[in-house]
Every structure is written in structure tokens, then in C-alpha cells.
Design goal:
The protein has 571 residues and is mainly α. It has helices spanning 2-21, 60-71, 85-97, 108-143, 146-153, 167-172, 176-187, 193-209, 213-220, 226-242, 246-253, 259-275, 283-293, 302-315, 319-334, 339-352, 356-365, 372-384, 388-396, 401-415, 421-433, 441-456, 460-468, 473-489, 493-508, 513-529, 533-549, 553-570; strands spanning 27-28, 38-39. It has 6 domains: 1-50, no CATH class; 58-143, Muramoyl-pentapeptide Carboxypeptidase, domain 1 (Orthogonal Bundle), CATH 1.10.101; 146-257; 283-369; 371-435; 439-571, Serine Threonine Protein Phosphatase 5, Tetratricopeptide repeat, CATH 1.25.40.10. Helix content is 70%, strand content 1%. Strands 1-2 form a two-stranded antiparallel ribbon.
């Protein structure tokens, strides 16, 4: 009898709790499992029967949840607003799948959660449609050209890694070629096509940079996403340009069907021409860039693409061509839907082209929300010409603290030759530590950048102090590897060894083997550039071992690509 009474009162508590959600009665329920219920209802003795869920009046909230669950395909009943058994079952099913407490109660929080899920699913579906359309367009563009048709036609359906290969020989005497081959074989075991395409694209870039264009083209033919084939062609063109092979870079660029992507490749070729002392021959390339830029749809922000090209040409010393492109970029930005932000991007490029007066005029005309890239560019330009006070003034106007700290750090590095770097670094450290009361990634990243800058400026003690405050173990490891390299170049052998030991401890604490490999490869490059051969050798050996021990095919492929690229820097 006691059990029956408890069940009855539990049912009453549930029914009355639901009634409150339906705005039927005032009710206070201390807990959904509580038997102590206080209600503003007639005495129980005046009832002829106890109310059931089905007898409760319809609720707008319940009807809303029914409609939302119906849209998700998780409720097929009538949308009447009553909390019937079908509705409770549907709610509990959703709650269980979403990792929520599956109590079956209809609440505003639950309705909001379902709405958010519905919007996320709808967005994902729209993105899938866009992705399909983009892939089809890229495929048609590649098929339209004899030079790229084969890249689409010869994509294999399945691949099997060569299990007879001797991987040990490569790790015993590593070369970029054999490491990339190992990465390529590992990629064959990645069954998710998107992840496999991702790493194959990295391998294409590595092969191209390593002077293996034929192997790069062959690997590009293994990509299943036509859009990534277009990106692979760009990477091959960029690698050819970096190697000074201008004609080959232009030839590859000429078959890239996407206008914005081809502009990036053409710009790299033009910069290579400038480096080779062939500046007089880049006018034709710039004319092609202008023609392509006018064909980019407005919703793809062509002004940003053109401004980037102008910026790279200006840095390479091609001021005249850069000016031509900046005129076009400003024209396109002025007509853009997101006019303010696109003009801000153009203004940052204007600084590099030496047009600071025009840039300042644009700065005054734009809202504060769009001013950050302009202020950063002006601060850097001021520091480069030795006006540290003006550089600091521009940096201090940046509203977002994390960006302000980054610019102050860059300005301090540039100001070291003119004095005043110490005060700027002190200000940057103070602001970095105030980024968040609790350790945050933004705070850790800012302190990592500051520690590395201090080390490079010959301030190892201040760098070590800044590194101690870095909460993120990966960023702390990166900072300490850089500090160790700086100490080695200062002939402080013991100091370098001590900091490297700390860096090794931090690196070992990183949970992901791929992340550990990435950090060690970065440490190898930084140490090699600083002339710290001991640190570079130590970091590279550990990076190689980390990559060798990874069993996940995708992570192993990514790690090997990174190690292969680092090998070139190290040697």
C-alpha cells in the first residue's frame, strides 16, 4: 500500500510540474524527484479523480517542442500541445542523444537546445549544398582544360599501402623524399576522404617544395575533391616560384581555373621575377592579375585578393605595379557590401606601398570597429622608420587587448635599434597578463610571443620570467625552445641546456603525438636559424622518433610531412 501511495504522489508531482510549464497553475516543486509538493489547488478530498497528463490543458511550450522535434524527425504524433506518452518518449530520446538528463520534462531550456540543434543541422545541410556546388564547378573547370583533365580522370577509387616497404631504412637515414613517400603510403590507410585529401594536399606542397614536380602532380591526381586539386596546383606554382623557376610557375598558374587562386600564383611568380632582377618583365603578369580580379564575383571580396597581391609586390620593391593594383583594390572595396572592412584591408596594403597620408585619411573615415588592421600597419611603419613614440601611439589605439599586445610586441622588436624597446615590452607584458583573470589561450599566446621576442632581443632573463607565466604547455614549450636557442647563440651553454631540459619536459607533457612532433619541428627550425646546431639536432631527433611512433595513419602522414619540411631547414 505504501508503494502505491508513493507512486500516486510521484505521478501527481510530475503532472503538476508539467502544468506549471503550461502556465496552468502556480506550483513550487523543490526537485523533480521530491515528494514534498506545495500547490494552490482544491483539497485532494474534493477531487473525484486524480489528474492525468492527458487531462492537462494544451501548452504553447509543449506544442513548440513537438513542432521542433517533428522537424528533426524525432516526433511523429499530433502537435496538439499536450504532454502525452509519445511526446515524453520523444523528449527523452532527444535528451539521451544530446547527452542531457533524460527526464522527459518540457522546459524553455530544452526548447532552446532543440532550436539550436535544428539551426546547426540546417546550416550543415546548406553548407553541404554549397560544397557540392563548388566541387561540381571546380570539376567542370578542370575538365575543360586538357592540361588538368587527367587530374580529375585518374583519381583512384581505393588505395592500398605497400606493406613490404622498408620504413626503417628511411628513419635510419632520413631524406625529404623518403619521408614524403612514407607519408604518402600512410595516407592510403586514411579512410575518411576529407582527411585523406587534407594530408595529400600537404604532401603535394612538400613534393613541390622539394623539387619533385612530377611526383607532386601525380599526388594531386589522387585527390578526390576537385577544389583541393585547384589548391594543389596553386601550391605547385608557389613552390616553383620559391625555387626561382619563374617560367614553370607561370605555366602552372596558367591552368588554374579559379581566378583568385590563379592571382596568388601569378603574384608569387612576379615576386620571383623581382628577386631575379627581372622587374621590367612583370607588367604582363600584373595586367593578367588586373583582368582576373575584375572577373572575381563581388561576394568573394576581390579587393582583399588584389590588396594582398599589391602588398607582396610592394615588399618586393615593385612599387609601380603595386600602385596600379591598389587603385583597383580601392575601387572594388568602395563598391563592396562590406565596404568598411574591405577598405581597411586595402588601407593596410597602402602603408606598405608608402602611402601613409592616404592611409591616415582612410583611418579617420572608417568606424573604430574596422580600424585595427590600419592601426597595426601604421604602428609597424612608424617603428620601421624609427618613430617609436608614434608607433606606440598607434598601437595603443587598438581596442582589442590581444591584438594590441601583439602589435606592441612587434613594434618593440622593430624599435630595438632605436631604443625604447624595453618600455614597450614591459607595457606589452603587463597588458598580456591582464588579458584574463584565469589562464586563457589568448594570454598564453601573447606571453609566448613576448618571451620569444625578448629572447631574440638578448633579454633571456626577462624571457624566462615571461615563459613561466604561460599556462598552455605547448606554447610554453615553444617559448622555451626559442629561449634555449637564443642562449646558445650568446655562448651561454649551461643556460641553454637548462632551458632545453625544461622545454623537453613541457614537450613531453603535450598529450598529442602529432602536436609534440609539430613543436619539435618548430624548435628544430628556430634553433637552426639561430645557429644552435646542438638544439636543432636534439629537437630533430626527437621529432623523427615521435613521427615514427604514431600509429594513426592521418596523424602519421601529417607528422612525416612536417618532419620532411623541417629536414630541409635543418640542413
Amino acid at each position: 500500500m505504501r508503494r502505491t501511495n508513493i507512486n500516486v504522489w510521484t505521478s501527481v508531482a510530475l503532472a503538476l510540474s508539467v502544468a506549471v510549464q503550461a502556465n496552468a497553475w502556480p506550483l513550487v516543486v523543490p526537485h523533480r524527484d521530491s515528494l514534498l509538493v506545495r500547490v494552490a489547488l482544491p483539497p485532494l478530498g474534493e477531487w473525484t479523480t486524480l489528474p492525468t497528463r492527458d487531462a492537462l490543458p494544451p501548452s504553447a511550450l509543449v506544442r513548440r517542442i513537438q513542432e521542433l522535434l517533428n522537424a528533426l524527425g524525432q516526433y511523429r504524433g499530433e502537435q496538439h500541445g499536450r504532454l502525452d506518452d509519445d511526446t515524453v518518449t520523444a523528449i527523452r530520446t532527444y535528451q539521451a542523444r544530446a547527452g542531457l538528463d533524460d527526464d522527459g520534462r518540457p522546459t524553455e531550456e530544452l526548447a532552446t537546445h532543440i532550436e539550436f540543434t535544428s539551426r546547426a543541422i540546417e546550416l550543415g545541410q546548406r553548407l553541404d549544398v554549397v560544397r557540392t556546388e563548388q566541387m561540381h564547378a571546380a570539376e567542370q573547370a578542370l575538365l575543360a582544360q586538357p592540361e588538368t583533365r587527367a587530374l580529375v580522370a585518374r583519381r583512384p577509387a581505393e588505395e592500398t599501402a605497400d606493406i613490404t616497404r622498408d620504413a626503417g631504412a628511411c628513419f635510419a637515414a632520413p631524406t625529404a623524399a623518403c619521408l614524403l613517400h612514407e607519408a604518402s603510403e600512410s595516407a592510403k590507410a586514411v579512410f575518411n576522404t576529407r582527411f585523406r585529401d587534407w594530408v595529400l594536399g600537404e604532401i603535394v606542397a612538400g613534393l613541390a617544395r622539394g623539387g619533385q614536380p612530377d611526383a607532386a602532380f601525380d599526388t594531386a591526381g589522387r585527390l578526390t575533391d576537385p577544389r583541393l586539386i585547384v589548391v594543389a596546383l596553386r601550391d605547385i606554382a608557389l613552390a616553383r616560384a620559391e625555387l626561382g623557376q619563374v617560367e614553370q610557375a607561370l605555366a602552372v598558374a596558367s591552368v588554374i581555373p579559379d581566378e583568385a587562386t590563379r592571382i596568388k600564383a601569378l603574384t608569387a611568380a612576379a615576386v620571383a621575377q623581382m628577386r631575379a632582377g627581372r622587374g621590367a618583365s612583370i607588367d604582363a603578369v600584373v595586367a593578367d592579375i588586373e583582368l582576373l580580379a575584375r572577373r572575381i564575383p563581388a561576394d568573394r571580396a576581390p579587393s582583399a585578393v588584389v590588396a594582398e597581391a599589391a602588398l607582396l609586390l610592394a615588399r618586393a620593391g615593385a612599387q609601380g605595379p603595386a600602385q596600379r593594383l591598389l587603385v583597383l583594390a580601392r575601387e572594388q572595396a568602395s563598391a563592396a557590401a562590406d565596404r568598411d572592412n574591405e577598405l581597411a584591408t586595402v588601407a593596410a596594403a597602402l602603408v606598405a606601398a608608402g602611402q601613409e597620408t592616404e592611409t591616415r585619411a582612410l583611418l579617420a573615415a572608417l568606424p573604430s570597429a574596422s580600424q585595427r588592421p590600419i592601426l597595426a600597419a601604421l604602428a609597424v611603419a612608424s617603428a620601421q622608420r624609427g618613430d617609436v613614440a608614434e608607433a606606440r601611439a598607434f598601437a595603443e589605439q587598438i581596442g582589442e587587448a590581444r591584438y594590441r599586445v601583439a602589435v606592441l610586441t612587434e613594434v618593440a622588436a622593430l624599435a630595438s635599434a632605436h631604443g625604447g624597446a624595453g618600455d614597450l615590452l614591459a607595457t606589452a607584458v603587463e597588458q598580456a597578463r591582464a588579458l584574463d583573470e584565469r589562464p586563457s589561450f589568448a594570454r598564453s599566446y601573447a606571453l609566448r610571443t613576448l618571451a620569444i621576442t625578448m629572447a631574440q632581443l638578448g633579454l633571456p632573463d626577462r624571457a624566462r620570467t615571461a615563459a613561466e607565466d604561460i599556462a598552455d604547455v605547448r606554447l610554453r614549450a615553444e617559448a622555451r625552445w626559442a629561449i634555449g636557442a637564443a642562449l646558445a647563440t650568446m655562448q651561454d651553454v649551461r643556460g641553454a641546456e637548462a632551458v632545453r631540459e625544461q622545454a623537453l619536459v613541457d614537450t613531453a607533457a603535450i598529450t598529442s603525438a602529432l602536436d609534440r612532433t609539430w613543436v619539435l619541428c618548430g624548435a628544430t627550425g628556430a634553433s637552426a636559424r639561430a645557429g644552435d646546431t646542438v638544439g636543432a639536432s636534439q629537437a630533430f631527433g626527437r621529432a623523427l622518433n615521435e613521427a615514427r611512433g604514431i600509429t594513426d595513419p592521418w596523424a602519421r602522414s601529417q607528422a612525416l610531412v612536417r618532419v620532411a619540411a623541417t629536414l630541409g631547414t635543418f640542413r
